[in-house]
């Protein structure tokens, strides 16, 4: 018995010793697992806020999602290029014009690369711009309302991929074409691609106060594929850099035929020089049809204007405006460090990571040290512009971001990792695996002169074994890393909606205090707005019936309507009279074949309903708004086409 007692005491003593070791040291006596609890680093307590916003592209969803960091919680999906039945975007009469194009109404999109507006090279949190790849367009989201307020179509373009990145004072947002095409478009044999197809690089001006966009000029480049781009900053402000591939100008089986050349190019565009040329009358106006769609936040209504011409520039007519920097091999990402000195060309098929020097580029141009020319555009010598190479850092480099501390972070698609390396010495400092096949990565403010964050997150293309299975299709995976120390630390996996490509991120304090909570009824200029229950009415104009309807907790006015006939086109103009934050009201009527409406406080939206059956049909609020939400309903009576039932409406009394 004594032996058993001694053994027990010895075990307890050893356990106590280990416990004592683990509880002594830093952080108030906590160390080991307790002091490095990763979950605590991403936990945001109830009632507290994330420190950063992340705006992640939705890829084939066509939209933009808003996440908090470090929690990884999704706060909102912002509809941009695709119809969105949750809010009625692209279905309501006010928002349908946002999806108009020269090809007609396009209800979906492929959104890739968001970028936040900047002032003096620093993120200012006013607007986000994002590209649509398939039907080339650029959209602007206003960060007061987190809503899409402008979309401009990009003519002479195809595969609007190297977009939508902004210059350091948001003078321009660019839209570069992935696929070269005949310019202007015409019927011609595809085999005559070489020398006849061109790639348009579009520079879209942004008005300083309003953010309104307009295509200032397009540079018509040789028929390569223009993959990604970034602006110069600091010393290189006034330049823009685009990666190219398919300098072979192949038109079939590109995985083989567009991978022949040992080096492709980074195209360096001196946009300030071209801007001066244009301001002095340079370039020529080319016929081109493209839509410009603008949402007015006072009328709560979008309009679509079809434009008829665009200014195009032949780069050979502006000496010193465009140069080619040879870059191995099939470069994808094109990234510029915060100082503006280093231009990183991420060659997908290259063993090394190539970094060019802006200063060396200027010196080579000054000394006219050219290796030749392509379609009249000078090609610089590779050795004359090379700053250095990161030797064999990984397989399949794609994209690079910067932390502002002299470090760069590059994703490697094939070896599924993020690699941290030092600018100037080109040495690898750290590497961390991703799960799996990483594409883009984002550091808050990493695409600016002043990166902001202690975080980096990588966006992965494959998610197998990371989440509970949901059939053959799963959400993609993002992984959040702490980069505040010398070594990266993986903190969190979180799923992302659609197929994220790039993301833009920033400190939440830049925008959260300016976020608009409601629409002021006094500023509502919608032509069919009703500002009180007494303004509610129903008006017939031939076979059109316009219902001026109000909604407030917890009733519609009117809530009973008669005199509608088969063949009528019924417009429900619904004004939300609430002036309290976060009290939207929904609207849906049985047989509505578009979408419900979700109407924000102080806002007016319109849904068209064309009844197909005689009867009495209910409508109701689809957004739970109060304890009496279930009672928030009404009826609309539909009579035969030749009926003589008069048009009447009521709320709270019987229709006589």
UniProtKB/TrEMBL annotation:
<dbReference type="InterPro" id="IPR015943">
    <property type="entry name" value="WD40/YVTN_repeat-like_dom_sf"/>
</dbReference>
<dbReference type="InterPro" id="IPR026468">
    <property type="entry name" value="Nitrous_oxide_Rdtase_Sec-dep"/>
</dbReference>
<dbReference type="InterPro" id="IPR001505">
    <property type="entry name" value="Copper_CuA"/>
</dbReference>
<dbReference type="InterPro" id="IPR008972">
    <property type="entry name" value="Cupredoxin"/>
</dbReference>
<dbReference type="GO" id="GO:0005507">
    <property type="term" value="F:copper ion binding"/>
</dbReference>
<dbReference type="Pfam" id="PF18764">
    <property type="entry name" value="nos_propeller"/>
</dbReference>
<protein>
    <submittedName>
        <fullName>Nitrous oxide reductase</fullName>
    </submittedName>
</protein>
<dbReference type="InterPro" id="IPR051403">
    <property type="entry name" value="NosZ/Cyto_c_oxidase_sub2"/>
</dbReference>
<dbReference type="GO" id="GO:0030313">
    <property type="term" value="C:cell envelope"/>
</dbReference>
<keyword id="KW-0186">Copper</keyword>
<dbReference type="InterPro" id="IPR041114">
    <property type="entry name" value="Nos_propeller"/>
</dbReference>
<dbReference type="InterPro" id="IPR011045">
    <property type="entry name" value="N2O_reductase_N"/>
</dbReference>
<keyword id="KW-0479">Metal-binding</keyword>
